[in-house]
Amino acid sequence: MVEEEECDCPDGLPPWMATFADLMSLLMCFFVLLLSFSEMDAMKFKRLAGSMAQAFGVQTQLKATEVPKGTSIIAQEFSPAIPEPTPINQIWQKTADIPQMSLEVKQVDQYDVEAGDIDKEAGVKLKIKQQLEELIRETQEDARELANDLREQIVTGEVEIETDGRKIIVRIREQGSFPSGSHIMNDDYYDVMDDIRAAVLKKPGRIQVQGHTDNVPMSSARYRSNWELSTARAVSVAQVLMNGDVNRRRFEVSGFADTKSLVNNDSEENRSRNRRVEIVIRQGLGDEISEEDKEIIKTEGKDIMRDLDLNPDYLFELQPEEIF
């Protein structure tokens, strides 16, 4: 028989195993404790991921089944940077399935300044519109004064007065003023013209004398067409208005034949209404509006003109020395 060798090994586990087991137990308890303190918020994680994707321009797809196992320290400390304005007019970014954005974008001072400029521009246009409305009211008041001075001629149907924006139109009808087919004024009509002259010259503005006829062709030894007849009648009226000490630079004379009829030339009554001479007082903008505001009206005043039913063609014709 073979004799068994005796072993000098100590009985039981080595002493260091006890210390190692205790340490492992403590570590396990520590991590279990940390896990018990954690929060599982899937929606918060999805919003954070969406914010990061928006901030860095990353195209990503997140599956709803991927639920985090705990709160990330990075997610708690993450703070997106404030976006800076870009000089590029358009930014194109292709993304797919972007979650709800929770990134707060703070408006920078540049956009506040632009918004302030817009408000300032709107205020300037409102001020200009109010000034134009006041000028139109002044023109209407001048027209009422003219109508009061020429009340007798208006009642007899020899004269009509109306306004159009900053224009006053004194319409001399053919009735009693000119013989048919002639530019020579009737002798008894000069008294009426003296009253018209005294009333018209008191009002500021450029004076345009315009002759008009019907559509019946004119062909005679004196007038080759209605153009010559309408112009000759306008000249006759203008000469009466320019008698005496008058600034003739205020006057313009023109003939339009039948191109600007008031009504259709389909009856004798309508043709008689179209045969007329109009004295148009164009009062313009004057000194009430500054040069800067006038430039705004010229360049950006289409909306203002449309609201007030103004024709801008004549608003800037009045010279400073013509205001009196």
The percent range for helix content is: 40-55%
Evaluate the radius of gyration.
46 Å
- Give average pLDDT, whole number: 75
* Series of secondary-structure elements, N-terminal to C-terminal: HHHHHEEHEHEHEHH
Q: How would you name the CATH homologous superfamily of the largest domain?
A: OmpA-like domain
Question: What CATH architecture of the largest domain would you give?
Answer: 2-Layer Sandwich
Strand portion: 5-15%
End-to-end distance, in Å?
150 Å
The number of E-state strands comes to 5
Number of domains: 2
Number of helices: 10
Which ranges are low-confidence, i.e. pLDDT below 50, for 5 or more consecutive residues? 108-113, 316-324
Q: Please summarize the sheet with the most strands.
A: 5 strands, mixed
Spatial sequence of strands, sheet with the most strands: 1-2-5-3-4
Structural class: alpha+beta
| Principal-axis shape | rod-shaped
CATH topology of the largest domain: 60s Ribosomal Protein L30, Chain: A
